[in-house]
Amino acid sequence: MDNLAIVLNKPKYPGNIGSVARCAKNMGISSIFVVNPLDVDRAKIEQLATHFALDVVEKITYVDSLDRALAPFNYVVGTTGRSGDTSLKRSMVYPGKMAEDIVDISQNNKVALVFGPEDRGLTNSELTYCDVLVKIPTSESLKSINLSHAVMIICYEIFTARLACTSVFTPKLATSEEIEAMYDHLQEMFLRINFIKTQNPEYWMTNVRRFLSRTKLLAKDVKIILGICHQVELYGKGKIG
User: Fold this and answer.
1) Residues 134, 138, 143, 147: what is their CA dihedral angle, to the nearest 10 degrees?
2) How much is the pTM?
3) Confidence at 87, pLDDT banded by 50, 70, 90
4) Is residue 235 within 8 Å of residue 191, measured between CB atoms?
5) Minimum mean pLDDT among 24-38, 75-89, 129-143, 214-228: which range?
6) What is the reported pLDDT for 142?
7) Average pLDDT over residues 143-154
8) Which residues on adjacent β-strands are paired with residue 33?
9) What are all long-range contacts of 204-210, with beta carbons under 8 Å and residues at least 24 apart?
């Protein structure tokens, strides 16, 4: 659990931050990142965290952007309340399946569990940072889940899945920062060779992200792709024949 971190993106209520801290403490997670919170009233945070989780509250890292918060992580789990496929075309799983994968991946990689604002969740652009999307199934009579409840469900599934873990684990993956740098280089190269359209290139990169997200990219894999981009650029400039 030491390689897991909870990332709260733009939470609105300090009480929810405190409740999440207590949930994290319950499940053995000590790392929380909070991105652009609306209110950080310390008294309200501590009230809901209770004295049991004050040590977790003390170590909360506040960050001004989601990409900066996720930069050091090798694997990013995004939570969403949407049903079916999204325009991002990411795979969507339920918490049980997600937990099995995370127990494996987290042995050698830092994993971020990302939760969006209470009123709307993560946007499409924010979900592009995620390697997998997880949806908590709910009754049709009430689909929305309190932020701290969602955090507890996800963390509990991972905590209990550890009991059945194996001895063979996924090796170290590329970080989110390395992955995003790779996509930036790919987009630049695709524009130069007219592989994607100049209007709204992010939209045309969606399928590329979908294709590459089917595998877990290692740091060395990203270096190979960047090397290919570099050679294509040199060829385009007539520096190699």
Assistant:
1) -60
2) 0.75
3) low
4) no
5) 75-89
6) 82
7) 91
8) 7, 61
9) 206/87, 206/88, 206/89, 207/89, 208/183, 209/88, 209/89, 209/128, 209/183, 210/88, 210/89, 210/90
Q: Checking phi first, is residue 164 left (phi over 0); if not, alpha (psi -120 to 50) or beta?
A: alpha
Q: Is 50 left (phi over 0), alpha (psi -120 to 50) or beta?
A: left
CA nearest 209: which of 239, 186, 237, 226? 186
Laid out side by side, the sheet with 132-134 consists of 61-63, 32-35, 4-9, 111-115, 75-79, 132-134, 92-93
- Helix then strand then coil, % of the chain, to nearest 5: 45, 10, 40
Amino acid identity, residue 71? A
Alpha carbon distance 65, 69 (integer Å):
6
| Amino acid residing at 27 | M
Category of 135 on φ-ψ map: left (φ > 0), alpha (ψ -120 to 50) or beta: beta
Mean pLDDT, rounded, for 116-138: 89
- Helix axes of 219-236 and 176-192: crossing angle, nearest 10 degrees: 20
